Amino acid sequence: MAQFHEPPVDPQEDTSPSLAVRPRAWEARLAGRTSQPNVARWVGAASLLGAFLITAGALLLLVLPVPEAPPAPPVVAQGDLATAQDDLATAQDDLATAQGDLATAQATGNAPLPTLAATQAVQVLRPDDARLPTLDTRTLAQLLQRPPVQVGTPNPAQSLRYDPFTLIPERPRSEFIEYTAVSGDTIDGIAKRYGLKAESIAWCNDRRIVFVLRPGDVLRIPPVDGACHLVLGTRNETIASIAQQYKVEPQKLANSPYSNFANLGINDVLPGGLSVFIEGGQGELITWNVKSDVQKDESGRIRSISFATGQRGSCGPVDPGGGVAWGNPLPNGTWVRGFSVGHTGIDLSAPVGTPIYAANSGPVLFSGFSNWGYGETVVLAHGPFSTLYAHMTTRNVACGQFVTVGQVVGTVGSTGNSTGPHLHFEIRYNDTPQNPSGTPGIGW
Q1: In the chain, how many domains are there?
Q2: Which of 257, 279, 301 is the last residue of a domain?
Q3: Which terminus of the chain has fewer Cβ atoms in its 10 Å neighbourhood, N or C?
Q4: Distance of CA 175 to the CA centre of its chain
């Protein structure tokens, strides 16, 4: 085989190496290899696909959240478990003791109230306590086999009873309080509000306020029924004399919790200006001033008048016509008491059954038994005037009648707040009490 010798390469020349000429046998072998299947290409493609899948899986692991691992079960030390089991056994013993005590108490009927010491014997383990014990199957079976605690039906007389509200007991007052009157108030209504008699309020307040009560008037309300008395230094008054005046026992007045006599004796002279409250005392007789309801027209003329509206003897709204001349209502009577701020009329005594005459002419406003202390009463209208006749035994006129001056309207008696047979006589002008003694023709 002839050999070809390539000339030496000169590195200084700008020429590429000569193409090597391969032998024929090499060429034949190479041609046969290229005609076989290209397995290497398939292997390479599979390798590339595997690499792609691995890369995609890694990316998914990076993107998706990683789930948290479940918490490991707590490790309970053997010593802590034994301590917890001992505590449980102690609690069971305490429970058995308590059951025995309860059974004994039920048998005797005296069930004791639970104490704090009984509840402190049981140790309470919170869920976050690291020493939570576990029960074995044997201990659990013993606990389940215990019979339930039997609680008998309690005796209603021995059981505790609880009310869903707080009871505040009523406490009696020991001092006076002040009350400011509002529109619509009456002495009788105020007295009922405080559980007192109307006279008790009247005896402890200015008579003008009592008989003509106006909104804004301030009343002194006593703690209990009784009367008030102001000691006058010129009278040399004593506890005994005041007690006699108000019809109470001297010693009771001296020991009253509502009066402070500074250890004075019942016969010692009291200092002037001392205010004394006599519990259960009875003051002067009070004849209440009943208000009339007057209706006027636009010109101011009285259109109608009614007396003691709502009481059975009231005649309702009446045209107040009449009024001519005045006459004496009880010519054969005896003067007893005159007109004053605390007494709105005059009192004339006479035997029971003595005739009483109309002091003027006019329609009947009221004929009946008065709830204000007047007893059997008749009231007549005379224009802007009205007259009242109280404490009678009988009444001779009724609603709807027109009475003339001098006509018999009733007879003397002692009904209502009265201490003896007499006539209480009033004259009012526009419902304001006037002094009858100053009226011409009355004769007193």
Answers
A1: 2
A2: 279
A3: N
A4: 23
Residue 51 placed within a domain: no
**Identity at 227, one-letter amino acid code:** A
Question: d(Cα 99, Cα 115) in Å, to the nearest integer?
Answer: 14
Domain co-membership, 250 together with 316: no
Q: Which of 360, 338, 358, 340 is nearest to 348 (CA)?
A: 338
Grouping H, G, I as helix, E, B as strand and the rest as coil, residue 418 is coil
352 within 8 A of 393, measured Cβ to Cβ: yes
Question: Among the three residues 239, 258, 279, which one is the final residue of a domain in this structure?
Answer: 279
Contacts of 430 (CB under 8 A, 6+ apart): 294, 384
pLDDT at residue 49 greater than cutoff 90: no
Calpha distance 381→312 (Å, rounded) = 18
pLDDT digits (tens, 9 = 90+) for 68-112: 655 655 555 555 566 667 777 776 777 777 676 666 656 655 555
Helix-helix angle 78-108:137-145, to 10 degrees? 10
Distances (CA, A) of 327 to 211, 376, 386: 26, 21, 13
Domain that holds residue 196: 177-279
Q: What is the mean predicted confidence (pLDDT) over 428-441?
A: 87
**Residues near 403 by Cβ (< 8 Å), separated by ≥ 6?**
358, 361, 362, 363, 364, 380, 397, 409
Residues 250-303: tens digit of each pLDDT: 999 998 888 878 778 889 999 888 999 999 998 876 656 667 777 888 887 778
104 vs 173: CA distance, rounded Å: 49
First to last CA, the chain: 190
**Structure-token pair, residue 201:** 């309020």
b/e map 275-288, b = 16+ CB within 10 Å? ebbbbbbbbeebbb
- Spatial CB neighbours of 136, under 8 Å, sequence gap ≥ 6: none
Name the phi and psi angles at 50, rounded to 5: -60, -40
pLDDT digits (tens, 9 = 90+) for 208-261: 677 667 789 999 999 999 999 999 877 889 999 999 999 999 999 998 888 878
DSSP state of 416: S
Q: Report the pLDDT value the prediction gives residue 107, as an integer from 0 to 100.
A: 61
The predicted model scores a pTM of 0.43
Cα–Cα distance, 93 to 253 (Å, whole number): 69
